[in-house]
Design brief:
single chain, 190 residues, alpha/beta, two-stranded antiparallel ribbon, 9 helices, 8 strands, globular
Length: 190
Amino acid sequence: LEIAGKRVLLMSSVDRVGMAEVFPALGAKMVYGDLLYAVGVPVPMRHLWQIVLLGTLLLPFMRLLPISYLYPTGSQEESTRAKYPRYFREADIIAGDFKYIKRYMPEDMVGKLIITNTTRAKDVEELRRRGAKLLITTTPSIGGESFGTNVMEGVFVALSGKHPDDLTEEDYLRLAEEINWQPGVLDLQG
């Protein structure tokens, strides 16, 4: 998958630091949606240094807010209302937490590549209906659904027999290889 030159909308970089760093390192043109989608301020951020600066200034205060103000919870998880659709239209790749993607995606997602996790069968069908091209989940698809990284971490901890604090990055990589953990890749229109 070629990333260089692609336009990426990362819904929230604060909770997907790896994606926030890797996409620009691979040459992607970024829009970080933290202010747009978590806070509702119509200011797209295009550089990682902006995230670091604003995070340093705002996160100490934002952590005091109810989670429902910053993240789709309850009935918000089940409904979609397009928000700042321009950034979806301009993006080749839409990445990040699927709850943000689902909550704010426009009706037209034709040709979009989605990189996320924690998708259910009905989410896959909705992306297909809206015309998204490809779905890549960072966790494997099990029975047509992908699960959160925290679920997969729980599986690794159980398999290792170690306390979570005792697991190293190498342990996780070894276990992922042993159980053949691969990202899910689904052609939604093929």
